[in-house]
Design goal:
This protein has 249 residues and is of the alpha/beta class. The protein contains 11 helices and 8 strands. It has an 8-stranded parallel sheet. Helix 1 packs parallel to helix 11 and helix 10 packs parallel to helix 11. It is globular. The two termini are 16 Å apart. It binds phosphoenolpyruvate.
């Protein structure tokens, strides 16, 4: 059975003190839930976050990682470094990494393989730009993003893959895909995985929706059968909003 997941993508936000304050608030207000709850503070605050959340059910995940084991990659972080501080899940392929840091499908495929080889669970992000949707190419684009980065993996690797469908036009814009648009794409993603592998595997993959999820729209989006939770940007930076979204699942 696939897990329900609510994950916060904190991006380049929150100093050390602000991180500690938000984590303390979240820990205190965390509702009783079967869903996995994750937060992703910036790199410099990961170690502190892991320590602060030692006795909490909230998991700490990374926003990114490099594909190389170690070496001359200034500014980068390896899978081993994450594992060493107790972080075993990494977001890979966020649209901001693709757009601002030149991360191509080819680079992302290498990151996925490197993460899985070390036992890191991958939260793989993908989604179309507005012009892809307007020109009716969104399904083809999403399928190619999945194929290029993930479909060479062995079926057994998929137990460590979480998908986050994030239409780029809905990220940080206040514009949300309608629950029907999210369901339509999630069902398509599941069907595409089923065709590439098999239906049982496809039914076991958690597919999160990301893009301006807020307390006001979370419940309706999460009620759709192929939506297994959310990757939350802006609203994950405010404890009461994130908690309300967790309650919605
Ligand atoms: C994100 O960046 O992954 C995201 C979904 O952001 P927001 O919720 O702010 O649209």
């Amino acid at each position: 059975m696939r897990s329900k997941i609510v994950a916060g993508n904190w991006k380049m936000n929150k100093t050390l003190e602000q991180t500690e304050t938000l984590l303390a608030e979240l820990s205190a207000k965390l509702p009783d839930t079967d869903a996995e709850v994750m937060v992703s503070p910036t790199y410099v605050n990961l170690t502190g976050a892991v320590r602060s959340l030692e006795s909490s059910k909230i998991e700490v995940i990374a926003q990114n990682m490099h594909f190389a084991e170690s070496g001359a990659y200034t500014g980068e972080i390896s899978a081993e470094m994450l594992l060493n501080i107790g972080v075993d899940t990494a977001i890979i392929g966020h649209s901001e990494r693709r757009a601002y840091f030149g991360e191509t499908d080819e680079i992302l495929a290498k990151k996925v393989v490197a993460a899985l080889a070390k036992g890191i669970r991958v939260m793989f992000c993908f989604g179309e730009e507005l012009e892809d949707r307007q020109s009716g190419k969104h399904f083809k684009l999403v399928e190619s993003q999945l194929r290029n980065a993930l479909f060479s993996l062995d079926a057994s690797a998929w137990s460590k893959i979480i998908l986050a469908y994030e239409p780029v036009w809905a990220i940080g814009t206040g514009e949300t895909a309608s629950p029907e648009q999210a369901q339509e794409m999630h069902a398509f993603i599941r069907k595409t995985i089923g065709e590439a592998y098999n239906t049982a595997l496809a039914n076991g993959v958690s597919i999160l929706y990301g893009g301006s999820v807020k307390p006001a729209n979370a419940e309706e989006i999460f009620s759709k059968p192929d939506v297994d939770g959310g990757l939350i940007g802006g609203a994950s930076l405010v404890a009461d909003d994130f908690v309300a979204i967790i309650k919605a699942i």
